[in-house]
Design brief:
Length: 379
């Protein structure tokens, strides 16, 4: 029996509405959730970090507010999400609480995963929760998100979350046990595909648009999620979530489709820093700091000689050596005014100036790409 989860230390698990909410009663499937919580607790005990992206707010809220099960207006969906989210997080807190695990709720909209400042903050909150042994429970902030700034499906949302926290695997638990050569409901000849080495046009063609009445995403949004995840170095598993103990099943040889990650996550982050960001400023460093960066260390205020540009925490900046050559690029940890204030100062003085708890690095090595010399150090 092969354990499909054995290689992974940091997971994002996406739970579809049709798995957590009973379609007939509109209530949480409590027995199922209790079993899933057991699976999560077992992983947690093994030291695996888990972030849950849970759908179900709209499906639960419908029942609570007495709305019909089909054709809700956007306003009704948003009201349903608002009422349902409370029930959803209570269910999570209670089921994981039974295993002594604390949950933290985070509701996000696309600007949070796409805008650098929010991205860095959300990532810090999530990793802090993980460091404290909690399990973050994430959903889209459906009750305030407008149509234009909405993921609308938790498949793609969970892929963004997985890449944000650099999970090594994203698991989509839904009502289907993987990718088939054609939608199985329509084609009796459809074959299950256990492993997808790369998402090609052919793979995309296999994904029909079918979705159940409870969940938003069909196979198409799952393949979209797969593209986001795998390109960022995160593997993806699609497995059937509805039976009891769906994660345990994966550790015992249960049917699923695995999408292989393309390249390493560190390479992917490096591509992301290099490729998609505008530079908001320049930071000039002295020779000692330049050497430290080339050796793979973080940029500390003490090595900074001059700061230029209008940037805020999370913006991308260029780092230049005393000859004015760009030696690195990274996401800056302080606003421009703060950076100016602490440049040339040691860590103690920096902490005094910025207050306790302030981050002591100006650019953390994890958020930096060194352009010259020891490039490999950033990976
Ligand atoms: N965020 C939605 C909810 O909680 C679910 C979206 C989806 O089904 O993918 O109801």
């Amino acid at each position: 029996m092969s354990n499909a989860l054995a290689p992974y230390r940091r997971l994002t698990v996406k739970i579809g509405s049709a798995t957590i909410v009973d379609g007939a009663t509109g209530r949480v499937r409590t027995e199922w959730l209790a079993a899933l919580a057991e699976d999560l607790a077992a992983l947690h005990k093994q030291g695996v970090s888990v972030v849950v992206v849970s759908s179900g707010a709209i499906a639960l809220g419908r029942g609570l507010l007495g709305l019909s099960a089909v054709n809700l207006t956007l306003e009704q969906q948003q009201a349903a999400a608002s009422a349902g989210q409370i029930a959803l997080s209570q269910a999570w807190a209670a089921s994981l609480g039974r295993h002594g695990i604390v949950t933290g709720q985070i509701l996000i909209t696309p600007n949070i995963t796409e805008e650098r400042r929010y991205f860095l903050n959300a990532r810090t909150t999530i990793t802090t929760l993980l460091g404290l042994g909690a399990i973050p429970i994430i959903n889209e902030n459906d009750s305030v998100a407008t149509q234009e700034i909405r993921y609308g499906d938790n498949d793609r949302l969970s892929a963004r979350v997985a890449t944000m926290i650099e999970a090594d695997c994203l698991i989509l638990l839904s009502d289907i046990d993987g990718l088939y050569t054609a939608p199985p409901a329509r084609d009796p000849e459809a074959r299950h595909i256990p492993f997808v080495p790369a998402i090609t046009g052919e793979i995309e063609d296999m994904a029909g648009g079918a979705a159940s009445h409870l969940s938003r995403g069909g196979m198409t949004t799952k393949i979209e999620a797969g593209k986001i995840a795998t390109q960022a170095g995160t593997a993806m598993i699609i497995a059937k979530g509805t039976p009891l103990h769906p994660l345990k099943a994966l550790t015992e040889g249960g049917l699923h489709t695995l999408f292989a990650a393309a390249g390493s996550r560190a390479q992917a982050r490096k591509r992301w820093i290099m490729g998609t960001l505008d530079l908001a400023g320049q930071i000039y460093v002295d020779a000692g700091a330049a050497k430290a960066l080339l050796d793979g260390r973080s940029l500390l205020p003490i090595g900074v000689t001059r700061v230029k540009g209008e940037f805020v925490r999370g913006d991308a900046v260029a780092i230049l050596d005393p000859d004015g050559r760009e030696i690195a690029r990274g996401l800056v940890g302080l606003d421009r005014e703060e950076a100016d204030l602490v440049k040339g100062k040691n860590s103690k003085r920096t902490a005094e100036l910025l207050g306790l708890g302030a981050r002591s690095e100006l650019v953390h090595r994890d958020n930096m790409v060194v352009l010259m010399g020891l490039e490999a150090k950033t990976a």
